[in-house]
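User:
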Amino acid sequence: MKVRDIIQAIEAFAPAAYQESYDNSGLQVGDMNADVKGCLLTLDVTEEIVKEAMDRGCNMIVAHHPIIFSGLKRLTGGNFVQRVVQMAIKNDINIYACHTNLDNMRAGVNAKIAEKLGLVKTRILNPMSDTLRKLYTYAPPGVADKVREAMFAAGAGEIGNYEECSFSATGTGTFRPNENANPAVGQAGGPRETNEEVKIEVLVHRHNEWTVVKAMKEAHIYEEVAYELVPLLNPNAEMGAGMVGVLPEPMDEMAFLAHIKDKMKANCIKYTQLSGKKVQKVAICGGSGSFLLKDAIKVQADVFITSDFKYHQFFDAENRIVIADIGHYESEQYTVELFLDILTEKFPNFAFLLSGLSTNPVKYFN
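Assistant: Predicted structure:
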């Protein structure tokens, strides 16, 4: 198995095209064509993690947080990032990160938190836009099924829990082949042709649009295939920031805080004024989620679980919601289990290893 095989498996689940503009997901150090002897899964990459990978016979590290977030101007060992990169290069360790693209998947980081907390009826809190395209093409009735099947096989026509979704309408198409054409219907340099055609419409994800167009063209009989690819503003219910769900049964606020502390293995929880009401609707965001507070209030969540709120941002709850800040590491620690789920499903006969180290830089005095 090659490094690229592991990356392709992860990015089939969380395409790199959906990482945030500020992010730096992808292969950080290494060679796409290197053979993988062992793979260590971790939240962060530190010098201790690289040492652990070496000790456990792993020459690849898959992490959630990129070790290289902004540009490196020198490699002199002046900080831990430089030292990690130097150490990895010297010991042929490949480092790959899948960050905000994994956060933005419907079944990604936040779904794992929801699973741990027992939330049901979950949905994306702030769905992404500009991730969908509408593809239109035209084919003779005898070819329409072949073209449609080719697009489905390439990933078109997926809407939520439904696959192979399309719409067709019959109409009349015209064309006149010039003398240089090689037409499937009519003659080069001949008269204008008038044919019955089927207009086929399918939804396509942005990251996959040209793969679908290529498959559509290869299945077609026309020399020049007419098609339109139109960006849509529709929110994508399968991608976006945060998640909201409900508890199967309402809980008292203090009991729910204890539930969070237990299930998320949090050393402490910073929270705002309690409302005195039962908790049932819960918003969550792994990592730094203060930017989603307005969305959590808008959906009338009782509690918003995330991390990295600044002091003055706690005032923004305005007694309309309870903010529960559990810590950055604590909110994303189960991401390694998500990596394990993805990779063992794809490569059931390869042993992926979970790091046995905590990379949390924050310590607590009890």
